Model the fold of this input.
Amino acid sequence: MTTFKVIFEDGREEVFSDEHRSGVLYGITRLEQTPIISLLGIKMISASSGEVLWPASEILKQRAIPDS
Done:
């Protein structure tokens, strides 16, 4: 079973089954456009592989090519 993890600002982590991943990501991206998002205290959502799924700013950091 593959999973994804929701990491909260206070350090808590919750692991969920991948079958809920698309619904959670859809909901969080919709809430991202409202003031409610700050009340949830979600820092990041990542796949079990470590790939960042949310927020977009962290995805860009993960994919950035380091300066040589």
